[in-house]
Amino acid sequence: MKAFPFSLDGAAKDWLYLQPVPFNTWGDMKCTFLEKFFPASRTTTIKKEIYGIRQHPRETLHEHWEKFNKCCAICPHHKISEKLLIQYFYEGLSMMDQSMIDASSVGALMDKTPATARHLIFNMASNTQYFQPNVGKLTDRIDITSEATCCWTTPTNHCSQSLWHMYFYGAHH
């Protein structure tokens, strides 16, 4: 309890030193602090973020894991069990990353203990941090290819119309 004031800064530090009566127990200080800086509405909003966290299409497993852990750290008193936290994280993953994690866990991740599941996810996220290809690059390449294919299916001048007919109907047309 003596070290707690050194962990505070700004408004939180001012709040602590402006208390009319000093706190006698850690529990009292914790409850009062959380009521002041984490009102019920803020806690509810953060818990909703945890429940509904989703991996973005261009987000790597490592980036999603970091985002999830930051979200949980913002609200240390969320009171969500470790098993549910792992479930929310897993359900928010892309199908590809879910499959990759299940394959690495030799079965379904949700059949593992929360500690084992967290350890597995941590290791996989760490391992893919520098080696997982950027999904966006592949998507951009597909878009360019699709546009090039579109040019072949819609001829714009006489020469390209002839090539188009030769390509699709054979050289005799």
Description:
There is one protein chain. The chain is mostly helical and 173 residues long. The protein has 3 domains: 1-37, no CATH class; 39-128, no CATH class; 144-169, no CATH class. It contains 9 helices and no strands. The chain has helices at 10-17, 26-37, 40-51, 61-74, 82-91, 95-104, 114-128, 135-153, 158-169. The protein is elongated. The protein starts with 9 loop residues before the first helix and ends with a helix.
Secondary structure layout:
Elements: H1 10-17, H2 26-37, H3 40-51, H4 61-74, H5 82-91, H6 95-104, H7 114-128, H8 135-153, H9 158-169
Low-confidence stretches: 135-157, 163-168
Average pLDDT score = 79
Q: Give the proportion of residues in helices.
A: 55-70%
Alpha carbon gap, first and last residue = 89 Å
**DSSP E strands, number:** 0
Number of domains: 3
The DSSP helix count reads 9
CA gyration radius, whole angstroms: 27 Å
Largest sheet data: none
Structure summarized in a few sentences:
Helix content is 65%, strand content 0%. With 173 residues, the protein is mainly alpha-helical.
